[in-house]
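OP here, attaching both records as promised.
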Amino acid sequence: MKVHVIMRIKHITFTLLLAYLLYSPVPAATAKAEPLRIMCLGDSITVGYTDNPHWKEPFKFGYRGRLYKLLKQAGYHFTFVGDSLQPWNKMSGDPSHNGTYKPEFDLRDLGADHHQGGGGAAIGALKGWVSKSDPDLILLMIGINGISKDSPTRIRGLVETIVTDQPDAQLIVAQITPYVDTQVDKNKLVYDYNVYIRDTLVPEFANKGHKVSTVDMYSLFLTKPNDYESAVAAGMHSNNYNHPFNKEYDLMADRWFAAIEALGLKEAKSIDQQTMKKWSAPFRGWHYYPDHVIPGAPEIKGFENVRMTDVPTVFQLPGDDKWYMTFIGFDGKGYQSFVAESDDLLNWGNMRLAMGYGKKGEFDYGGCVLGAYLYEDYGIKSPRTLKKRNGKYWSLYGAYEKQGGYELDPGYEGVASSVDGMKWSRAKEQYILSIHEPDVGEWEKDCIYMPWLVEHEGKFYNFYNAKKMPQWVEQIGLATSSDLMDWKRYKQNPVLRVRPGGYDEKFCADGKVFRDGDHWVMFYFGVGKGHAHIMAAYSRDLIHWVADPEPLYKAGGHPAGLDKKHAHKISLVWNPKNETYYMFYNAVGDKGRGIGLITSKPLTD
């Protein structure tokens, strides 16, 4: 719905041909995903030093050995990355005892002894290492060397560097292990440093939309591991200073593994490029309907001032063969939602108001945007039949509190209900999502836009897009609920992010989510390369998403110039009568802004 920005994108006077990709199916056994690239980044504890240089406590790769086993046992497809030569370069003694010792479980034999750790490294030393090896996941543990009151400032600078240089990588920042219990003053600094990481640093960057989380390695070394305030325990340091024994390294591996599991990277990374091509193939190669099915000026009785239409959403009612479509119209003051009906998905009529302006002073006074309906089934080919809950139909909706312009900030979301599916009204007087809640993220602090509702296994999912200024970047977040009324944001938002240089480098917005076999597909629009395009992302769990870099449909494909500027905000319907997908979308071009249609097969009389 961000036409006020999209309409300002410089018009480029050329017509893009429709791009589509033919895919020859590859047997599942031959389509291998790219491995998850894990960088263990830090100091001597990342290397796995024990009581060097004597090495009476044998070298067993620190936490990395057991972590490797845990990841393999859990089915991860991964590789450790990094180019550090320690400890085998004998910088601090010879862990092989002149070739007489070899670890029983040797990562070198597996080609897995790769890391980015360095003995004695301080926080500042790592800034030159973070761009190496193109990691997908960074396990950062640094700070014990040179710990001081300035360490929080230094670690913040390092994290800033990492999220800037590697914006797509997940970063887990460890609350570091303490010194031996006799180092009271240093351990006080370690404690303060860890509290800063836990309570300030990680929440700050996570709220800005960065993929940053934390793991507690500190409490493993306390007299009461469940009490962060307790003293450091004795007998846990192999060098009687700062290096753990191997048994403590194994406990650290357990915690790293739990932190990695919480990110769901196994599910996301398993969706490789070959798989995405296969999943996207049915949604390429579209055929054109010659004109808008609902024009920008639809001549709705009593609403003749409507001059732009947008946001189509098709649905059916139980026991009714008709198709219905809600859409919004802009009349110079704001949005209102209208409903039309059709017998054939082509000819739409009997247009009337579905939900109008709210009362002055309310969060939806500037307009209501219906369309995030509660469906009976979210299958990609299932009928778009509205589901009754507590005797009513339900929808989330976008809203604006101000009249007098196009989508005046800030936006809100509400929840509406209907007895008949035609006339809708508020189901809750208070908005359900806005920029005013305490858990609002930095990435969404300027405006909340359109929701999309999914019900799955007794839980409600709200996929919504939001804006950050002054960059005007829109991304997609997730909130969940058990009752449609009270919603909680996902802590790792946004779940779908813009990609520099891509077709979604400025916006990824207005996601519409359906179940397609063994996975979920999200149709969204990206803004990049001068236009808005129809894109797709995929997930196995509704939380972790991987986007296809190539649009399903590029703006400018329509031979009549109907979408010369922009193609976005879709509603996808499967018509079983002719076994055809109908994709309704907002087409902006030579005939203004209206609701267009493309189909997976050519339509015949």
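Record two, same layout:
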Amino acid sequence: MKHEEQLALFADLLKKRAANSGRLLLLIDDVGERMAKDLVTFISYVPPDVSILITTREAAVGTAIGATQFRVEPLERADCSQLLASVSESALVRTEVSAVDTLLSLLGDLPLAVELVARQIAVRERKPGFSIEGLCRRLQEFAPEILSFPGHRGIAMSFALSYDHLDEIEQRIFRSLGIYASGPLAAITIAAVCMAEREKAESILDRLVVVSMLDWGTGAGEYRIHPLLHKYSEFLFGRSATAEQNFTRHRFYQHYTSVATAVCKNSPKDLHAIDRMLPNLTKAIQCAAANGDHLAISETVLGLCVRMSFFTIRNLELESMSFLELAIAAAKNLGDRERESIFNGHLGTSYARLGKIRSAVEHYERAVAIARDIGNDYDLASHLQNLGGTLLSEAKNLPRAEALLHEALTVAKRSQNMEVAISCFGTLGTLHRQTGNFKEAARLYAGALEGSRLAGDRLAEGNNLSNLGLVTNQLGDASEGEKMIRDALAIAIEIGDKRGEGNRTGHLGGILLAKARRLAPGSEQSGILKSAREHITTAVRLAEETGDAERAGAWLMNLGNICVLEGNTVEGIKRLETALGIAAVGGFGLLEAQARYNLGSLLAQQGQLQLALGHFRASGALFRNMRSPIAAQVEATINHLNETLK
């Protein structure tokens, strides 16, 4: 996905969140001068009603973006003196008053710098001849290139003093931290990357804690690093010998890609293992690409996407894209057309789940073409099913979508790809549900549900159970349908499927909305509408968080309908127009048809018949493309409005 598209998606998310939650404050922490240009571009995408607070250590940043600036002053000198004395526990702080004053001036009265130097005083004061005055001279002797570290000179001095006190191996390990993401650091990983024994590495990391260059983590063998010290380790690593940088990067990406591949192979349900390493794994894949290790990239991404379905289950479509694009390039370099087809298919799924229908179709079609060319029926079935399902969502070419799904089912049976066969039953169920053939839809969903249970696929089980609940409700058994959806919601929560959780919560809100519509205005209806609003608002939030644009639009449409029932037609129309906008951007034909139908009904009630007719005509065309029975109802409404306008 292009950078501008990512920014536009983020802006849309902010806009929708502000519409649902009220005014927002966006905090962007620790911005440097090098980021100023990107920040200007980023801010241009932020909606005007979202306030922005930026923290920086460089005044030029505020000037570059034209911000109102508030200076946060450092500690008072007396407080700094007290901090120095309490951390160092040195009598010299009381006896060398003038030198302490000079020291604190050098450090800029910055708490982190004062704490680091205080730790050094605690260690060094036992050395014969040590004095704070001599320490000040040492701070002023550091080489200019070391002090080119961005930020206050006092921070650089304190970091350099602490680093200077480390031995050669300790310095090398501290520098190596610069290659890691700024999250928890594990001794076992650092030992592997630096080719050190676990006990030796942990001993060195413990010493870095003692001198305040690291801190303890939350678990055994785990450590944390202050963001500024992490930047300093990056700074030092970038200035280390080329051979050291190459060696460390090579060890780093080899460790993380091999561990991730092993987890995917041996513990494919252990998503938490990948969660913990994902920031570093992302950097490792980039390092592997820079080193031209195409096999490491291909093996790792294959494991994450195929064996584990990590990105799909975790709803990390945006994060998956950089992995998959590198994997496609790696497969091409390796001449591995089978994997090139697989990775294109998964990238298509990422685009589809983000509501980028055209991009999804392009990648699915590439995947289909390659699979056909190499005669890989097993993967061809999957790509055909995904392409058919995406075209079904687009609702522009239903005959092609149906033909692709039937072909996918045939190919899946021929290649014994039972997972895809089950998915085909579910997607064909959705097709029949859209066309009004609810009994056939229920039969297909039930078959897909049974198959997913036999396969032990909890994600597919939850999806099919929810769909069966919806069609059961449409067939008239509301209580059984609601029970199925609640059971499906429990599965989503159990396996951490946030997208499924949002969908089922929204469906339950829709059931409540339908109940409210059957009631006369009064306290009972108000209570049910309140509960419906709570469910659907939660569903909107979860859809936005997981990038499910189509569902977010559907739930916003239902919120609009709630507003209308509550007597707030103006707000209802706004919500419906927002839903229509999402449908237009994403290419969601069914959502567009539904939103236009609802808008047409509201506008007709207000006497805006020409506007209503426009929406009904567009809606009717879409419903006809989907072979939906609603098309006849829309056509009757259009005829009635035309008669009225004569």
